[in-house]
Amino acid sequence: QVQLVESGGGLVQAGGSLRLSCKVSGTIFSINAMGWYRQGPGKQRELVASLISDGRTNYADTVKGRFTISRDNAKNTVYLQMNSLKHEDTDVYYCYAGGVYSKEAKNYRVDDYWGQGTQVTVSA
8: how many CB neighbours lie within 10 A of its CB? Predict the structure, then answer.
C-alpha cells in the first residue's frame, strides 16, 4: 500500500526557514512527478513547487527565489526547503506523488497520491 508521510512543518518567525520532507513508502518502482501544494481555509489548493523525473521544476511565482524543491530517488523522498518565510506562506502543505508505479499484493498499478498535510505557520 502506497503511503506518503510528511514531516517538518511547524511554527517559525517571519524571515526564518523550514524544511519539509515527504517519504513515499510501499513497493515502488518509479515516481514520475513529486511536488508540494498548499491550501488555506476557504481557498483552493495551489501548487507551490513540482519536480518531474527528468529534472524539470516548476514554482509558484510567490515562492520563486525563496523555496527549493529536491528529491532523493533512492529514498523516494521529496524535500521543500523554505527560506525567507513570510506570514502569507502560512498554510497546510500537502505532498503529491504523481505517476507512481507500484505493486500491491499481486497487482501492479500507476496512480497519484497525496499526503495528509502538514501545518506551516509563519508569525508576523
Answer: 16
Region of residue 87 (left: phi > 0; alpha: psi -120 to 50; beta: else): alpha
Q: pLDDT tens digits, residue range 69-109? A: 999 999 999 999 999 999 999 999 999 999 999 999 999 99
- The reported pLDDT for the residue numbered 121 is 97
Mean pLDDT of 21-29: 96
Note the pLDDT tens digit of each residue in 31-69: 999 999 999 989 999 999 999 999 999 999 999 999 999
Angle value at C-alpha 123, between 47 and 85, nearest 5 degrees: 45
Residue 121 CB contacts under 8 Å (≥ 6 apart), including other chains: 10, 11, 12, 90
Q: How far apart are CA 92 and CA 121, in angstroms?
A: 8
Backbone angles phi, psi at 26, to 5 degrees: 125, -175
